[in-house]
Specification:
The complex is a heterodimer of chains A (333) and B (376).
Chain A lengths: L4 H17 L18 E6 L8 H10 L38 E6 L5 E2 L5 E7 L8 H5 L5 E3 L6 E3 L9 H5 L6 E2 L8 E2 L15 H5 L5 E5 H13 L5 E5 L8 E5 L18 E4 L18 H9 L2 H27 L1
Chain B lengths: L10 H23 L1 H4 L10 H13 L2 H11 L9 H22 L8 H4 L6 H27 L3 H9 L1 H21 L17 H28 L5 H28 L11 H22 L1 H5 L1 H23 L4 H6 L8 H24 L9
Helix pairs in contact in B: 1-16, 3-5, 3-14, 3-16, 4-5, 4-9, 4-10, 5-7, 5-16, 7-8, 7-9, 9-10, 10-11, 10-14, 11-12, 12-14
Classes of the chains: A alpha+beta (333), B mainly alpha (376).
């Protein structure tokens, strides 16, 4: 055997360097990268939103039943989120373990003009983006978060969850919320009302939206509708569908000015919740650091190298032991 | 075999027991009242002090076990045999404590076994969980000859010693993967973690810094236990560890600087912000000062200076783990208006873990043959 310790360390260093230099590889096949065949989602148009919060009311009602995202067996009333001292109004200030869909006002400067950046304001509706390649699903050690292979809804299986909260750390959109107040806590997030599809119903927020700001439908149709709106000229008339993208009911009104960006088309590899607005999305609370990077790929770059590491350490270690053992015996004798 | 002459009922021991009792109360309160009642964790800070300090820090502090075991059983550097038992026992305590911290940090503590049966290979958390289980078992096996010796079960003692080389090799493999996978946990948050620490090289940085920490930790506790338990200092071993530390320190320094230059650039470290200052603190205490001191033969060979360097490295790598786990997320979280500082109960439980490690080590030193080579 000619390999001495110096040679071995050299070989190990070269091997380590090669691993260090190699590039990220696509995630394991079980992590989806393409839009599922029957993917459903929501298109939110901030220029149509009037901030009535009907969507929030129906969300809480419809999700407090068995199968819903806010269901608790022993909860007597709706999961109200009090933030004022008198505890009269359900007035959530942010997403929480009791509020999985929220309308927020985002102001700039004096905040006088709707859907304008300079001294303007815009409404925004925040809930789970239902990513095409969700970070939360990829990091969950027990598959408590899953992506439906057909409709692409990202949902939660309560009984599996161990409460490590890695999903909350991993989500770039700050969506999963935790029942910190409970000794038997769950993760809470929008599940796109998947428990209502079998009855022929769709997302509760879209059902109650009076202006067509939130519409439910197939993601491919939503993308077409959004693309069409981005070609419209401000001031011309357009018939906006209400409740669902293929609805007969339309709301005819003047078109506002859009920022030429369909949010969710490419962000974090694409999402099934899509947004249009009159102001930049950074102003609406979307983190500017979110890129088109498919997040689970970053992790898989590490995991895919594990078999090589196992082989290297076991073979290298055994060889080293075999070589050094002999030399050591010589010394002892 | 006689028991070592170590007094148990000293004021220090009583202090340790008081801290452990306080920690036990916190643990019970946490289980019955929930995370919100016991901690300051919130929706933008899902992980706090228990993960940053107890899990990331504790596991890094346990790295000495696989390094010394590997040196003695795989590289056959028999010179280090006298410290292999304390190093492995220390690692065993480190892992038991990390696992206990995870147990109390999980919202559903009693489902801690779920990952073992519900595999999800895309998840680093799954990989980490499996490693904690396997490596804690391995460390138990590596420590078992001491126990069998004490219980005079010589058959089991001889059997465990006969299969020790493959067990140690398995332990080296698990540690390599586990130390690096703790860094890989953070690969998924490029938009959240400060670029001063976020990097595709996080797994390597965690592995190398764990080796650095492990060497210092072993040296530190060798000196400390020699003084506490009155047995002669193994000076040559300590100097050997210091030489190893110098090599690792140089490598780690190059890796850190490369990472900074290839990432946000040198200027980012001098931005003057809290985050940048935490980075500088980590670099000066944990990397540059130890490297400079170890490079000078005078300090590399003197026991007092070695002890000081050990302290610097231990504190420095702990700061690194806290930076990655907590401070590196501060700029992101405060952009969305939420701060975090550990609650008193979070601090008490961590203090209790540390007290348990010292107490357990002392009990082991008394009742087990922890330092076989010094007993003649």
């Amino acid at each position: 055997m000619s390999m001495n310790r110096r040679d071995f360390l050299k070989a190990a260093a070269v091997g380590g360097g090669a691993i260090l230099a190699s590039q990220a590889v696509p995630a394991d096949a079980s992590m989806p990268r393409e839009l599922p065949p029957e993917a459903v989602g929501i298109l939110y148009d901030a220029t149509l939103c009037i901030g009535c919060k009907s969507c929030m009311v129906n969300c809480k009602i419809q999700n407090s039943v068995p199968g819903g995202a806010l269901y608790l067996p022993d909860r007597k009333e709706l999961p109200y989120d009090f933030s004022s001292p008198d505890n009269i109004w359900d007035d959530a200030r942010d997403l929480s373990s009791k509020t999985v869909n929220i309308i927020k006002v985002c102001k700039n400067g004096t905040g006088e003009h709707k859907d304008e950046t300079e001294n303007g304001f815009s409404l925004v509706k925040q809930h789970c983006m239902h990513c095409i390649s969700p970070a939360c699903v990829s990091v969950c050690p027990v598959s408590a978060l899953r992506k439906d292979p057909k409709n692409g809804v990202v949902y939660y299986v309560e009984d599996r969850c161990i409460g490590c909260r890695y999903c909350m750390l991993a989500c770039p959109f700050r969506i999963p919320r935790y029942e910190y107040e409970s000794a038997n806590p769950r993760v809470r997030k929008c599940q796109l009302c998947r428990h209502r599809y079998d009855a022929g119903k769709y997302s509760a927020c879209c059902e109650y939206c009076p202006t067509g700001a939130s519409i439910f439908g197939k993601v491919t149709d939503l993308r077409k509708e959004a693309a069409k709106r981005l070609t419209l000229k401000p001031g011309e008339e357009y018939s906006f569908p209400v409740q669902t993208v293929d609805s007969k009911e339309k709301s005819r009104r003047l078109v506002s000015k859009y920022i030429n960006h369909l949010y969710g088309m490419k962000e974090a590899g694409g999402t099934q919740y899509l947004l249009l607005a009159g102001v930049p999305f950074e102003m609406l609370g979307f983190d500017k650091n979110i890129t088109e990077q498919v997040l689970p790929d970053l992790t898989w770059a590490y995991i895919s190298k594990i078999p090589a590491v196992i082989a290297t350490v076991l073979i290298g270690g055994a060889a080293t032991w075999a070589v050094t053992r002999g030399r050591n015996k010589d010394k002892e004798e | 075999m006689k028991q070592r002459d170590i007094k148990m009922m000293t004021p220090t021991t009583i202090g340790l027991i008081v801290v452990m009792a306080a920690g036990a109360l916190v643990a019970v309160y946490r289980l019955f009242k929930g995370l919100g009642a016991a901690t300051n964790l919130n929706n933008l800070w899902p992980w706090g002090f228990w993960i940053g300090m107890d899990v990331l820090g504790g596991v890094a502090m346990a790295a000495g076990g696989f390094i010394i075991a590997g040196a003695v059983y795989i590289l056959n550097w028999k010179k280090y045999k006298p410290i292999v038992r304390p190093a492995i026992l220390n690692a065993f305590f480190g892992y038991v404590l990390a696992a206990t911290a995870i147990f109390f940090d999980m919202g559903q503590s009693f489902r801690i076994w779920h990952p073992v049966v519900m595999w999800q290979v895309n998840s680093i958390m799954f990989i980490v969980a499996i490693h904690v289980v396997l490596y804690t078992t391995t460390l138990g096996a590596e420590s078992s000859p001491m126990l069998f010796e004490r219980l005079k079960m010589m058959g089991a003692y001889r059997f465990m010693n006969a299969i020790m080389v493959p067990i140690v090799l398995f332990g080296v493999l698990l540690s390599t993967l586990h130390q690096s996978s703790l860094g890989a946990v953070y690969l998924i948050i490029p938009s959240k973690l400060s670029p001063l620490w976020y990097s595709s090289r996080l797994p390597y940085l965690f592995l190398v810094s764990a080796v650095f920490m492990g060497l210092s930790m072993v040296s530190f506790e060798t000196i400390l236990s020699s003084r506490l338990f009155n047995h002669p200092l193994p000076v040559e071993i300590l100097r050997g560890l210091a030489r190893g530390s110098l090599i690792v320190a140089g490598f780690y320094f190059i890796l850190k600087v490369w990472d900074l230059v290839a990432g946000p650039g040198i200027g980012a470290a001098f931005a003057g912000s809290f985050t940048a200052n935490m980075y500088l603190l980590e670099m000066v205490i944990g990397v540059m000062l130890p490297l400079v001191l170890l490079a000078m033969p005078k300090y590399r060979t003197g026991i007092n200076s070695i002890f000081s360097v050990n302290l610097l490295v231990i504190v420095g790598v702990l700061i690194n783990r806290m930076n990655v786990g907590i401070f590196g997320l501060a700029e992101y979280a405060s952009r969305f208006g939420v701060d975090y500082f550990p609650s008193l109960m979070e601090l008490i439980l961590t203090a209790a873990f540390i007290a348990f490690a010292f107490f357990g080590f002392k009990v082991s030193a008394k009742y087990l043959n922890l330092f076989p080579e010094t007993e003649h």
